[in-house]
Amino acid sequence: MEGTQVPLAGEANVTTKVEAAQRADNKRDWKVALQLNCEPADKNAGAYVVAMELIGFFEVDSELSEDRIGDVVAANAPAILYSAARELILLITGRGPFPPLSLPSATFIDETPTSIMRRAEVQKAAAAKPKQPA
User: Fold this and answer.
1) CB within 8 A of 33, min separation 6: which ones?
2) Which of 8, 84, 100, 130 has the smallest count of CB within 10 Å of its CB?
3) CA dist., res. 58 & res. 75, Å (int)
4) What beta strand segments (E) does the chain contain?
5) Could you read off the pLDDT of 26-82 as tens digits, one per residue?
């Protein structure tokens, strides 16, 4: 899953990439990796360039129905990893000679399998709709 580029008050851009893998022998156990890159919009003005990967292991509650597992993991696991990255980056950059770097909050709800499928259906319906002459 590719995240979108997020501008940081005109100073930097953040990009994310999420990779998730489900255990073959237990569909409730997941390994999720979040790659995060942050670069200044103006290469001559930014104090920090960040490239990091966080990996988390997640277990989905047994009470959650199996048809919802993919959406819950796709939305929540990267959000948890991203929030940890935000805190770590703020902590590390806050100890340097430049102002600390605070990443914006982010959501991964648009990257769930259900959201992706709905967008594809909307695009397909829009493409099939006859165009009205102007």
Assistant:
1) 18, 19, 20, 53, 54, 55, 56
2) 130
3) 12
4) 6-8, 12-22, 29-40, 50-59
5) 999 999 999 999 988 777 777 889 999 999 999 999 999 999 999 999 999 999 999
Distinct helix (H) and strand (E) counts, the chain = 2, 4
What whole-number distance in Å separates Cα of residue 85 and Cα of residue 3? 15
Give me the long-range contacts of 119-128 (CB less than 8 A, separation at least 24). Answer: none
Q: Which two tokens stand for residue 77?
A: 């696991």
User: Domains in the chain and their CATH numbers?
Assistant: 6-128 (3.10.420.10)
Return the H-helix or E-strand segment holding 123: helix 113-128
pTM of the model: 0.80
Q: Both tokens of residue 52? A: 């990091």
